[in-house]
Structures are given as structure tokens and as C-alpha cells.
Amino acid sequence: MYVCHCGGNISDYVDVNRVVEAVREEPGVVVAREAMFTCSDASQQEIIRDIKEQELDGLVVASCSPRLHLHTFRDVAKRAGLNPYQYTQVNIREQCSWAHTGDREGATAKAIRLVRAGIARTRLTEPLQPLKIDTVPAVLVVGAGIAGLRAAIGLADTGISVYVVEREAAPGGRVARLGRMYPHGKRGRELINQLVEEVQKRENITLFTGAGLVEKSGSIGNFQVRIRVREPVESEIGVQVGAIIVATGFDLYQPREGEYGFGLEGVITLDDFLELLDAPGAGLNFRGREVKDVVYVYCVGSRQGAGGEGANRYCSRYCCNAAVHAASLAFDKSPGVRQYHLFRDMRTYGRFELFYQEALRRGAVFLKFDESEPPRVERGEGGKLKVTVKDLLTCGEEFELQADLVVLVTGMVPRENGKLVDILKLPVGRDGFFNEIHPKLRPVETVVDGLFICGTCQGPKNSSESVASALAAVTQSASILKKGYVELEPLVAAVDPRRCNWCGECAGTCPYSAIEREHYQDREVARVNEAVCKGCGGCVPSCSRGALNLKGYSDEQIRAMIDALAKEIC
Amino acid sequence: MSGQAGINSDFSPKILVFSTNNISDPGIDLAGSSHMHYPPSVTVISMPCTSGIRPEWIAYAVERGFDGVFLAADGEECAYLPDCAKRTSEIVRRAQELLEQKGYEPQRVRMSAICSVCAGPFTGHMKEFSEALKNLGPARKG
Ligand SMILES: Cc1cc2nc3c(=O)[nH]c(=O)nc-3n(C[C@H](O)[C@H](O)[C@H](O)COP(=O)(O)OP(=O)(O)OC[C@H]3O[C@@H](n4cnc5c(N)ncnc54)[C@H](O)[C@@H]3O)c2cc1C
Question: What confidence category does residue B141 fall into, taking pLDDT thresholds of 50, 70 and 90?
């Protein structure tokens, strides 16, 4: 039994030493220790040494949520020769220290109860072996933007078959509409053409455009999906895949009417401006008029104050870079153009700083405004727009700028995709983008086994970051499928044939038909087909004789946990 | 109702929550990671699905000293059972029957769907339920 300080995330709010002392004498406890970080290499080594030296047959770690480290410590158990299913993770961080930061006494008492329950549960565990399921060597990729296309090629090259489903009539997503992109200056369209050519060369990639997912069943290793296509005739196609990668991208923030003058002639969004810059020929023109003065407004639709309903609080990450890059493109096209960039904070991180320096060197002017006093955009004289801004860099001096064009540097927003979320049970975060299990350690996996996410559907990214995550999803899915099997949790339902006298009640509760009838001695009893059972336990309450149990959550274990949680703290 | 007379300001009702590994437990985690507070007398047992809870466990928890039991169900989001909400309410109904047979108030068990980002709703439910149980008084009389 080990209790983690988690640096202070736990020990600042819970008296860890008191927890350890309180459970030291619990039945079954042989070793009780605390550690600064139980997940560190050194602590893992110590746990392994204890298990081996003391020949322990159960392990409890009280630290963070099982979603972060259940697998880490199951693996520690395994390396020490202990059955991983005799491990229990007790969550005293998310569900204790962090939730009760103002009540050290209460949090400590709660931690003691939770650890006792974990110990009680562990004493009643039995060694289990994972179930092996054969996998189908094929992957479904949803979305054919730069992330989805690159993922498809990567997977195909490992010998896995790929089905790509794209909603639009043509592949490529946002990048297909871009001209010269940062950082390399290559045209987005050309990049996409190159990828599509690579896709077409590979016989093991099938690309469906104008298509959508309509149904999914099955589980990791063997999903059955149905795809609806419109061309050449509307029809449905069923395919079997072992994993699914979602790369459905983002949407652009749409400014409200009147937001920074949006709706006035000459107020446009960055994507429209990029299109102007990409138009053939020299000179910069808008609706037949020469553009001499351009004013950019940054952070439109991003980093919105906490107050607003459904505010986008995040930074959209691509936009500072795209806007300073656009400054250079504009100077290339029209060397005399005057440019004013109204920004809140400049976030040209990493090497993109060089584009900022280049824009400055070539004469673009940068003015910093505060969110609480945003620039005002109005109709001006002589067909121009008038922009008024308070510049923080000159102690709040107010400037009036005359502009032919005002470019709103709009951010990224999550794409409306309710139907897909429904079909795939995609986890959606508070900001509306899809959620990975762990931003650092499991950045493309979701809580649904075999379902991966990559690219901008996860949150704002530029295209190289989108591709990097796409290739991470390739590695993660291929590493499952190349093995040919997956090991599933053996935490499935089980029948005690001595108590069962086949009434059939339980079989009726299972939508997966995992419960069958069999002969046991001279009687008929129920039997659970382990490969089919999903481990939900939905059948358990149907048995009036208590003959059904879910492994890891047995009647005995739950009652022992209730006892431990209810016990008084002395 | 018995508890009424002896309402004790120190009484902090013990609540047992049954959550689900993939949906409501992450929601409860999020409450903690956002430092949203609820009483520490709330403790959680996480299961794959609330449809797998035996009504007997709920009655057992009350008999052992919990003042209330809350089922943080998956509702429509359940990945296993399309009729999960219906099943869980049936479990609540059976548990309430059991409680009444044993002389406890059926209001000691509640359920609500808690999604994986439902941190606010969860803490709200805990505070409300805690207040309701304070009015009801401790489950164990005398
Ligand atoms: C104005 C602008 C300029 C930019 N400039 C640059 C730049 O210079 N350099 C750079 O690196 N990045 C730039 N970016 C960022 C870049 O566009 C993104 O990083 C990139 O598009 C992300 O790719 P993706 O595949 O994740 O998403 P997307 O490009 O959004 O592609 C997603 C695809 O999925 C499809 N889809 C969505 N839902 C479904 C569904 N349910 N079923 C089937 N298909 C679906 C969509 O139709 C789309 O084709 C810019 C972005 C903008 C807005």
C-alpha cells in the first residue's frame, strides 16, 4: 500500500502520513509507505522490490485518477510478477485533495476511508488473465483534411487497409483552400494535391468523398461500420475495421454582425484576405480598388473573457503566425502598402518569431490594445474605414487609422458534428473540441478503446502539428493491429453454477447475447461467453439468487468497500 | 418523520456515490481538477455501468451508516446499454422498496445522469442532496 504526495497536489491538502499510519494495521497490509511521486521510476522500482522481497499478492496505490495511472501501476505489478488485476488504484487527488482544498481534516478522513476501501477490495481480488481478441487489419479514417490524408498514407504503408470517409465532394479540408503557407511558403493546394496523388497510388486506401458514417457497432479490434455515399448512386457500404481515427478538423470563427465593424464594406476575415493575396498578378486590389492601408485586428473569436456565455477562452494558436506571414505576403505583392497590426499579445512561438521580425523589418506597424478597450471600426471618409485604437505601447495614446481593408484575424472553433459524436461516442471537452485521455502521455487516444483523434478536431493546431498528431494516431492504431490481437479486460460477468438454476432472466437483459445455457452436472445453468461480454454488469441485478457477479466488482467486493467506507475514523 | 427534531448543525451526511468508469467518474474528477468543492463526506465507488448495481448494495450501504446513496448514471451516453437510464431507475425503485421495508426513507436514494464534463451539475447535486439529508436526519436513529 503506497500513498502518493503528488508533489504537493495531494499532501498540501491531505495529511499523507496520517493516512499511512491509519491503514498500516488494516488486515492484509504488509507494507505501508508514502512517496513524493509514486509514478516516478525510483518509486516504481521500490514497489517492485517490495513485492518481490515480501512476496506480496496485492497492490494498492493511492494517488491520482485511474484514468491517468491505472495502467502504469498494473504494469508495475506485472513487472514484479504480481497479477495486474490484483492491483487497485485509489483516487485521492481528483476525488479528494483537489475537491476539498479548504478542509484538511475532512480530506484526510476521506482519504483514509478511500484507502481502506481499496485495501478491502484488493484482498478479494483473484488473479485474472486478459482475454485475447483477433483484430481486423483495417482502419477507418473520418475526415480527409491534411491530418486524415497523412494518417491514411502512413497506415497504408504499414500494410493496413484504410477507408477514408470525407463529407465534402473533394478532399483536403482547410489547407486545400490556402495559398502560400507559413513556414515554407508552399501552396496549400499543392500540398494537398501531392497527398491525394500518394493516396491514389496506394491500392489499400479507399477514399469515399461526399460520404458520411451512419452506424458503428462492435469494439476495439473488430468494429462494423456503415458508410453512406451519394455518388454514383446513393447507397450504403458496410466495412469491418480494427480501429477508427477521427480527423474531422475545425471550423472558422464567424464574427457577429457589427463585431469590429463586420458587415461593413471592406471588413473581411483573414481567410478572405489570404485569398486576395493569392490572386494572380501584382498589386493588391479589393473590389477593383487599390488597397493602400490595411488594419489587422488579432484574437477575433479567441481568448474571449471568461464572462461571456460559451466564450472561446483558448488561444487559436495558428493565427498570430498566419497574420505576420500575411504581412510579408502583402509586402511581396504590393511593396508600398501600409500595414497596422492591432494585437493583444504576440504569440509567434518558436521559429515563427522570425516571421514577426521580418514583418517589423519591412515596415509593418504593431499596436497593442487591451481587451477591455477594443478598437472601434466605423465608416470613414472617402470610402475609407476609420479605426480608432488605444495603443498600450505609447501609454494609451489614441490613434485614428484610415483603412481600405480591415482584416479580422479569426480563430478556430469546434466543428458542429453532433451526429458523429453520437455514433462514435466521442468524448467532447468543455471547449467543444474532442478530448484525449491524457494531453501528455496519451495524446491521441480516447476513453473509447480503439478510437483515436488527431488534428484540429482536438483543439487549435497548425498543419504541421496536425500532421504530427495524425502520425501519432497511426503509430498507436498500427501497434494494436500489427500484433494481430488485442488483450481485453477480463473484467466480465461470471456465473456461479452452484447457485444458478437457469431461469433465463439474465439472458434477457443482455443486448449482446453473451449469456447462454449450458449443462452443469445434471442441471441447466447460465454461462457467460467471455469474448462477447462487454463487462457492463447489466445482468447482475437481474439474478434473484445472487449467482451472477462482475469480476472486479463482485458482491463480496462491493460490500467490503461499503463496510470500509462507512467505518468510523478513530 | 423521526430525524426532524434532532437536526444537528454538525451533522454532515455521509453520501455514497456510484459512478461509472468512463462517463460520470471523469465528470467527478473534473469537479476536483477544477477545485469545485463538495462535502468530503461524499465518497465514490466506480463501476463500469450503473445498470449493474444491485439494489441490495444500496440498502446495505444505508444499513452500514451511509445517510444517502446517489447513482451518477450515464443516461443517454452509456456505451453499453441503450436503455441504461430506464434500468438504473428500475434499480432505484427496487432499492427504495427495500429501504422502506427496512424502515428507512426512500428519499435516501437518488439518481441523475452525470456526463464526463458535468462537474458543475455534480457538485450542485451533492450540495442539494446533502441539504435534503440534513433535513431528513441521520439514517441510523439513536
Ligand atoms: C485562414 C487560415 C490560414 C492558415 N494558414 C496556415 C499556414 O499558413 N500554415 C499552417 O501550418 N497552418 C495554417 N492554418 C491551419 C490549418 O488550416 C490547419 O492546421 C489544418 O487545416 C488542420 O487540418 P485538419 O485535417 O485537422 O482539419 P481540416 O482541414 O478542418 O479538415 C477536416 C476534414 O474533415 C472533414 N469532415 C468533418 N466532419 C466530417 C464528418 N462528420 N464526416 C466526414 N468528414 C468530415 C471536413 O470536411 C474536412 O475535409 C491556417 C488556418 C486558417 C483558418
Answer: low
